[in-house]
Amino acid sequence: MMPELKCPKCQKLLAPESIPGDGAVTCPWCRGKIHIHIFPAFFRDFEKGQLPEKIVVDSEAVCFFHLEKSAVTSCSKCGVFLCKLCELDIGGKLLCPKCFEAGKKEIATFTKEAFLYDELFYFLSLIGLLTCYFSWLILPISFIGSIYCWKKIKTPYARRKWRFVAAMIISVLGLGLIGFLIVATVSGLIK
Amino acid sequence: MDTYRKLAKISTPFGLFTSAKQIWKAEDHFLISHQRSPFLEEYRRYYFKDIQYITVCKTKAGYIMYSVISLLLLLSLGGIVFFYIEKMEEGVIVFEIISAALFIILLFIIIFCGSSSKTVIKTIAGDDKEAFRGFYRKTLKVVKLMKEQITEAQGAMPVKEPIPPPQQETLPGNIGT
């Protein structure tokens, strides 16, 4: 099958002869200038997965999920036999579909989104500092939350923790200020 | 777990209103992170071996931002002249001068960064979706870095077989002459 390339502006197909391997081209439809970088995968088709083989003799090991297919490997987590169709190569480990589904959230390669607790508590600490009436409630929440969720962020990359630290510092300073104001008011320093 | 190295942070001319996208490089893929909401970040992975092409084209966002800031700068300058003629208080004129200076700085930043662009990454498995938007010059630099990694993983481009020239038919009368 001939590979296709669409203009990113007008979404119309570009003629194969007008596509340079690497460089700028003007779209014949919208006259927009496009920088194109083509790689060898452009000429490669989607690789189909291997099909499982049927069992030949009764004594042959069979797939846990397909009893008529011969097993080729076993799941590295639960140990069940797997055929070619069921084996899932996840970062060098062979997993069965059930173990994959169960541990999908834990595998960094499949993380699609992550909740940013550090942003939340950093934001809360700033809000706590600005809203005078609820500071006594928001600042402790921000401080305790920062400690509790320190290791809870599941970003695939190593995220810096400065927001947690900043949230804790702001919370402590804010609470210190509240404490000082209360003591000063009670002791008569502030009238 | 994959170890990621930050490749670039791409922001748009409207960067004040939308969050920037970050591009990370792992051993065999790129990870593009985007903060969808203030506390939620989503990720897209592009494996080096699967990337078919990358296209970069200019968008109008940069020009719009450029026009808006130019207009605001003109209004500020006009304000300075107007308040000076009308002999308004010094504070008002100082305020106008500060805002004009800010607009000049913003305008220089936008001129320096170049126009805005849209980048599309097409993989074998995926549809050709927009990967990120950013300033044109920076985007070209980032794409160059990405290109190096992809070329390393995929190797050189296959050499196109030259089309043989059409053979000239020999006329029967010319045989033997």
Number of strands of chain A: 7
The end-to-end span of chain A amounts to 84 Å
Q: Roughly how many Å is the radius of gyration of chain A?
A: 30 Å
CATH classification, class level of the largest domain in chain B: Mainly Beta
Described by the principal axes of the CA atoms, the overall outline of chain B is elongated
Look up the CATH topology of the largest domain in chain B. Answer: PH-domain like
Judged by helices, strands and strand pairing, the structural class of chain A is alpha+beta
Helix content of chain B: 25-40%
**In angstroms, what is the radius of gyration of chain B?**
27 Å
| Fraction of residues in β-strands of chain B | 25-35%
Which keywords apply here?
heterodimer; A: 191 residues; alpha+beta; 3 domains; two-stranded antiparallel ribbon; 4 helices; 32% helix; B: 177 residues; PH-domain like; 2 domains; 4-stranded antiparallel beta sheet; 3-stranded antiparallel beta sheet; 3 helices; 7 strands; elongated
Written overview of the protein:
The complex is a heterodimer of chains A (191) and B (177). Chain A is α+β, with helices and mostly antiparallel strands and 191 residues long. Chain A has helices at 97-103, 117-130, 135-148, 162-187, and strands at residues 22-26, 33-38, 73-74, 81-82, 88-90, 93-95, 113-115. Chain A has 3 domains: 1-47, no CATH class; 49-103, no CATH class; 117-187. Chain A is built from 4 helices and 7 strands; from the N terminus they run ββββββαβααα. In chain A, the strands form 3 sheets. Chain A has a two-stranded antiparallel sheet. In chain A, strands 3-4 form a two-stranded antiparallel sheet. In chain A, a hairpin with a 6-residue loop joins strand 3 and strand 4. In chain A, helix 2 runs antiparallel to helix 3 (135-148). Chain A is flat, with a radius of gyration of 30 Å. Chain B has 2 domains: 5-59 and 115-150, PH-domain like (Roll), CATH 2.30.29; 61-112. Chain B is built from 3 helices and 7 strands; from the N terminus they run E-E-E-E-E-H-H-E-E-H. In chain B, helix 1 packs antiparallel against helix 2 (90-113). The longest helix of chain B is centred in the middle third of the chain and has 25 residues, at 61-85. The model of chain B has no long low-confidence stretch (mean pLDDT 82). Chains A and B meet through strand 2, strand 7 and helix 2 of A and strand 3, strand 4, strand 5, strand 6 and helix 3 of B. Strand 7 (113-115) of chain A pairs antiparallel with strand 4 (40-47) of chain B.
